[in-house]
């Protein structure tokens, strides 16, 4: 779904999306009725349908906004890091910070995929687009650390991150984050030591 660059979204659309994003993340996608979003956003049904043809379009917009924020944060983190390995550590630290945040309910994209398992559904496809970007982004960084193939390490990082996102809701987040960041350190070590197992 493309947006007009430079066009500021309407206040009503922003309010609907902000309200829906907060409730969707806290309570899930299928369980939240449109009427609840309209009431909390103090918006009419006619206004809602002017901006979103249906609820699933709002869900896709919620994921698009989450994707935009995460990409911006990733780029900011990479820009302030002096090297690729520092950037990977900083990205891992950002993820760990999220896991330790009050109200953490896991990964918005993994949660959405669980509720929309059909790979042809627009919501599921939007989840996959985000994950493809993230894998490519971390693999690019790993490609700048050592001379081993980057994508296996990128996939390993993504799997560590996925596991931490799930475990962070079920176990002590401090211990989960320590395990996650230790795993990232292991990946970076394996790329710097000749003969170490491939990351």
Secondary structure elements and their pairing?
Elements: H1 11-27, H2 34-41, H3 45-51, H4 55-79, H5 84-99, H6 108-115, H7 122-142, H8 150-167, H9 173-192
Helix pairs in contact: 1-2, 1-4, 4-5, 4-7, 5-9, 6-7, 7-8, 8-9
Account of the 3D structure:
Residues 10-70 form the HTH tetR-type domain. Residues 33-52 bind DNA. This protein is mostly helical and 199 residues long. It folds into 2 domains: 9-52, Orthogonal Bundle (Arc Repressor Mutant, subunit A), CATH 1.10.10.60; 56-192, Tetracycline Repressor, domain 2. Helix content is 70%, strand content 0%. It has 9 helices and no strands. The protein is elongated, with a radius of gyration of 19 Å. The two termini are 35 Å apart.
What descriptors fit this protein?
single chain, about 200 residues, mainly alpha, Arc Repressor Mutant, subunit A, Tetracycline Repressor, domain 2, 9 helices, about 70% helix, elongated, disordered N terminus
């Amino acid at each position: 779904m493309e947006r007009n660059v430079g066009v500021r979204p309407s206040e009503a659309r922003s309010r609907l999306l902000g309200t829906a994003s907060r409730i969707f993340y806290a309570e899930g996608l299928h369980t939240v009725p449109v009427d609840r979003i309209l009431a909390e956003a103090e918006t009419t049904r006619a206004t809602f349908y002017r901006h979103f043809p249906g609820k699933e379009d709002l869900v896709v917009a919620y994921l698009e906004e989450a994707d935009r924020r995460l990409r911006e944060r990733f780029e900011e983190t990479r820009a302030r890091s002096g090297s690729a390995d520092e950037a990977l550590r900083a990205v891992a630290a950002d993820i760990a910070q999220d896991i330790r945040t009050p109200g953490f309910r896991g990964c918005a994209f993994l949660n959405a995929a669980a509720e929309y398992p059909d790979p042809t559904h627009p919501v599921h496809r939007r989840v996959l687009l985000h994950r493809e970007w993230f894998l490519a982004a971390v693999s690019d960084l790993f490609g700048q650390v050592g001379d081993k193939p980057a994508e296996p390490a990128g996939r390993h990082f993504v799997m560590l991150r996925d596991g931490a996102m799930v475990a962070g809701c079920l176990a002590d987040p401090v211990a989960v984050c320590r395990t996650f960041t230790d795993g990232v350190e292991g990946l970076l070590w394996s790329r710097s030591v000749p003969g170490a197992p491939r990351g």
